[in-house]
UniProtKB/TrEMBL annotation:
PANTHER family the UniProt entry points to: BLR6921 PROTEIN, MAJOR FACILITATOR SUPERFAMILY MULTIDRUG TRANSPORTER MFSC
Subcellular localization, as worded in the UniProt entry: Cell membrane
Membrane topology, record value: Multi-pass membrane protein
InterPro entries assigned to the protein according to its UniProt record, in alphabetical order: MFS, MFS_dom, MFS_trans_sf, Sugar_transporter_CS
Gene3D superfamilies recorded: MFS general substrate transporter like domains, Multidrug resistance protein D
Protein name: MFS transporter
Annotated keywords: Antibiotic resistance, Cell membrane, Membrane, Transmembrane, Transmembrane helix, Transport
Transmembrane segments: 20-43, 55-74, 86-103, 115-136, 148-168, 174-194, 220-237, 249-267, 287-309, 329-347, 383-402, 423-443, 449-470
All copies of domain Major facilitator superfamily (MFS) profile, residue ranges: 20-473
Source organism per UniProt: Streptomyces ortus
Entry keyword Glycosyltransferase: no
Cytoplasm keyword on record: no
Length: 485
């Protein structure tokens, strides 16, 4: 009898564990899909809603800006309100935003929905990993859960390209509508499966006490100034190519971004519980990795924006064919993560050498595509460029993540991860928006300028990565004073 009860309990725990992992991984998948699912649909969206190329850039950037701009605050919200409460609420809002985005009749509503979904992803993606750490015991069970969760995240970008192409063949609206029922189903299962507060999680303050000292606890001044700085910068950068960099409103936007950025830095230094631990900015491996990953992601998304328009607008390729054509840049990383190749490479060769080995490939791909001219052949120009970009991701993606955390104390890993992911997402948002603005400015060399920008960003990331090979400066050892007698 006792044995039967123990077997039944073990079976229930196993079923619960797999059910929870399905909910968390399913949500991670739709979060990852959102990064790429809009790319292939852009020409159809622009034609249907009458959006300029600059506005289309915001369709992509809106999600990344919401994601990256709210990551730091999201961690604080989860800490104070609890993982389960925030996770489930974000899933529900994500479903509603997907529905509104798919039914949008104008650009601002569509972009606004994308931004809201980015905020929801900032609340769920890192929280899902934290739930896994709390719900699964250390050892093989947790390692397997993290592996599955990461695989769904890495494979989501590739799946998004194909799914976007497939759904856009019917209507671009389905690319934004399909996550709504998926998120709703995950929410309903999550009500039963997502655990409440665990012993390792701080209790959320009672509802009646949240009003007391809210700015100090949530650091709302820091959130407002950082978010305002990012929005002002993105707006000014997208206005500059069309209106001119000396335009009064463009200059005002840049100055406002600088002022709000300075205010954020001052607030964070003085705050008792800042959103950003500024001392982490002295961690060279973290800063170097964040800058390298930001350049890698930003240049990649900007490049995909140009290639998508080249294939569909200039080449008259259908959406599904376009999505499949872009896979050579994304699929190698998904395979490397799924097979464990990325982790084995890091373990064998180390992070700095691995990053330096792969850092040349994306800029070389961008240059190859640029030199192919205004009407590049897919076989001789586009495909080689995409393969070079994919090769760069295989070598660098896991290595940059590992290098970023290599010298960070355990207590600071969450904050360091927030800085790293914020940099990656915001670079994607800003570079894509600027590329779109250059293409939308109407200049004769607009495409050339956009590709030059992509190449410069990629080359800057390569330069940062190569500094990891430089010998470290050793601090001079103090010589003890000799005293006689």
């Amino acid at each position: 009898m006792t044995t039967d009860r123990a077997a039944t309990a073990d079976s229930a725990r196993t079923a619960f564990g797999w059910g929870l992992l399905c909910v968390l991984s399913g949500n991670m998948l739709i979060d990852a899909l959102e990064v790429s699912v809009a790319v292939v649909a852009l020409p159809s969206i622009g034609s249907d809603l009458g959006l300029s190329r600059t506005a289309l850039g915001w369709v992509v950037s809106g999600f990344a800006l919401g994601f990256g701009g709210s990551l730091l605050l999201a961690g604080r919200v989860v800490e104070l309100l609890g993982r389960r409460r925030v996770y489930l609420a974000a899933l529900l809002v994500f479903a509603v935003a997907s529905l509104l985005g798919g039914l949008a009749t104008n650009g601002p509503l569509l972009i606004g929905g994308r931004f809201v979904k980015g905020v929801c992803a900032a609340l769920t993606a890192p929280t899902g990993l934290a739930i896994i750490g709390a719900a699964y015991p250390a050892g093989p069970a947790r390692d397997k859960a993290v592996s599955v969760y990461s695989l769904f995240g890495a494979g989501g970008f590739s799946a998004g390209l194909l799914l976007s192409g497939l759904l856009t063949e019917v209507s671009w609206r389905w690319t934004f509508l399909f996550p709504a029922p998926v998120a709703l189903v995950l929410f309903l299962f999550g009500l039963r499966l997502v655990p409440g507060r665990t012993p390792g999680e701080r209790a959320a303050a009672p509802a009646g006490t949240l009003r007391v000292g809210v700015p100090k606890r949530y650091d709302l001044p820091g959130a407002v100034t950082s978010g305002g700085a990012l929005l002002a910068l993105a707006w000014a950068l997208t206005r500059g190519p069309g209106a001119g960099w000396a335009d009064p409103l463009t200059v005002t936007g840049l100055l406002l971004a600088a002022a709000l950025g300075a205010a954020f830095a001052h607030i964070e230094r003085a705050a008792p519980r800042p959103l950003m631990r500024t001392r982490l900015l002295a961690d060279r491996p973290l800063v170097r990795s964040a800058a390298g990953a930001a350049a890698l992601n930003g240049s990649y998304l900007g490049f995909l924006f140009v290639v998508t328009l080249d294939l569909q607008d200039a080449g008259n390729w259908p959406p599904l064919r376009t999505g499949a054509a872009l896979l050579p840049a994304a699929l190698p990383l998904a395979v490397a993560v799924a097979t464990g190749l990325s982790a084995r490479l890091v373990g064998r060769y180390g992070t700095a050498r691995l990053i330096a080995t792969g850092t040349w490939a994306p800029p070389a791909g961008y240059l190859w595509y640029l030199l192919a001219g205004d009407h590049p052949s897919y076989a001789s120009a586009t495909l080689p460029a995409l393969l070079l970009v994919g090769l760069g991701f295989v070598f660098q993606f896991a290595a940059l993540n590992a290098q970023a955390m290599s010298a960070v104390p355990d207590l600071d890993r969450g904050a360091a991860g927030g800085i790293y992911q914020t940099s990656v997402q915001l670079a994607g948002a800003v570079v894509t928006a600027l590329v779109a603005a250059l293409l939308g400015a109407g200049a004769d060399d607009a495409r050339h300028s956009a590709l030059v920008l992509v190449g410069v960003v990629g080359a800057a990331g390569a330069a940062v990565a190569l500094t990891g090979l430089l010998p470290r400066r050793s601090r001079p050892t103090a010589v003890p004073e000799h005293r006689e007698g």
